[in-house]
Amino acid sequence: MEPQKKIRIGDLLVQHRIISHEQLMLALAEQKKTGRKLGRTLIDLNYIGETDLLNFLSRQLQIPFLDIAQYKRKPEVCKELPENLARRFRVMLLESTANDVLLAMADPTDLMSLDEISRVLKKRIRQAVVRETDLLTAIDQAYRRTEEISNLAEQLSDELSEHNFDINSLLSNAEVNEAPVVKLLQSIFEDAVQTNASDIHIEPDERVLRIRQRIDGVLNEQVLDNINIAPALVVRLKLMSGLNISEKRLPQDGRFSIRIKNKVLDVRLSTLPIQNGESVVMRILDQSKGLLDLEQLGMPPELLDRFKKHIRNPHGLILVTGPTGSGKTTTLYAALSAVNYPQTKIITAEDPVEANLPRVNQSQINEKIGLSFANVLRSALRQDPDVILVGEIRDRETADIAVRASITGHLVFSTLHTNGAVETATRLLDMGIEGYILASSLKVIVAQRLVRKICDRCAQAVEIKEDQRIWLEQTFNLPASDFVFKKGSGCQYCNHMGYRGRIGVYELLEMRHETLDALRRMNSADFVSAARSTPGFKSFTEQALDLVKQGLTTLHEVIRISEV
Fold this sequence. Notes:
Elements: H1 9-15, H2 21-34, H3 38-44, H4 50-61, H5 75-78, H6 83-89, E1 91-96, E2 100-105, H7 111-121, E3 124-129, H8 132-142, H9 146-162, H10 168-171, H11 173-176, H12 180-195, E4 199-204, E5 209-215, E6 218-224, H13 230-241, E7 252-260, E8 263-274, E9 277-286, H14 301-311, E10 316-321, H15 328-338, E11 346-350, E12 360-364, H16 373-381, E13 387-390, H17 396-406, E14 411-416, H18 421-431, H19 435-441, E15 442-454, E16 459-461, H20 466-476, E17 486-488, E18 499-510, H21 513-520, H22 524-532, H23 540-549, H24 555-561
Parallel strand pairs: 2-3, 10-14, 10-15, 11-12, 11-13, 13-14
Antiparallel strand pairs: 1-2, 4-5, 4-9, 5-6, 7-8, 8-9, 15-18, 16-17
Helix pairs in contact: 9-12, 16-17, 18-22, 19-21, 21-22, 23-24
């Protein structure tokens, strides 16, 4: 590649009056503090939009500005460039011939990267500029570990066929990192990080081993023919979790931390004896992502304002409900962060503690030694708390203590597993909580679900099916003509799923005179009727249909979470 003159992007932007000289000086000062590239610094400071900057670079350098998510990439071409260089320089090969390559770059002014890549590939480089976030996603997809996992599984299987499985090799620090089973698990975790999986399932079948990942709430499967490697994987994971490796007859629970690509993952592990061995399920918690604040939850603004009003109360009971995996803990942690001040004492009882919160006393439930929610809650009340979080109300004893704590000067947050906000209060009545006490304590109930978001890279307008049109019109008296229905056609950005990411759907029920009166009388039917007619209350389905109108999700997702 011919030597290029260094491009001073900041000076060019000033010359073309896209940013001011003062903004450039401020950005350079910020760049010295953070070490980030100037272009990213200008974007983060809102001095220029990313698309505007990339269009400008495209014109100035006379190179194309590509949408890499829509570009038809070939994995074998991408992998001509070693993964460590692709990640280090934030580049990707899109095309390759005998003489030259097309290189996608987030920063096409980075001449050092170009020189190094040219030296490695020994070809002429044609540049294209792409969005950085799209590029990083494309790199993750191109260098996925599925092929590597298959190869390592084959290698481990061959080794186990030739020799008996030696547990001591996993106990020796000198050999453990080079053991095939360790390399295989490392690849499995790396692949899960790249796909943003929330759970990993390892399931031995009669003749195959299934490795499944839950991505955006849906399981995706990789099948390995090497069923004989399952015991080695289970033993290694038990060792990492501090579990009893000789116990195969009983379920076990554990946790461990692992570093993957500069990320620290907290992994919760559960084993279950099944017909063909032991099933292992791991929940992955990425500690590097940090906690969301209330504004990042995706609540509609009017619901968020009402929720904020209630968490500012000095006392009362606030409940967040929904099925497993619906984001209840995320919402509760965001609420705790909003009231976490130096003058506020916060104590939690959790099973498990999912993230470390500064200035919060978090207690891990351990039923085996008698450390139950109820016991922790009793002790917490003697610790002079202002705010208490009870991870889950599972029984009458815990419910009774939580409710009484909320009417004696404490703000109490907790969760229940119910289908919606309206059913939550009646569940507490069914548990045996007196209606007059519940009416004195309960302030607001938030119920939530998660629906998949349509991939914004491949979204397109579609016609809905006849049965969906009938469901919409007969159930809600909403003509289909009021909607512009969209669906993701599937692209590389979303792994050809048509969806990427999830968004929350919320019910928020505030206690009013009519609902409180029904609680005092312990009349569940009247409570349900009063709750559904509460001003401002909208059901899951109504909230989700608003997301359909906004083009964020599909009618299929609405029907999936609907109670109708």
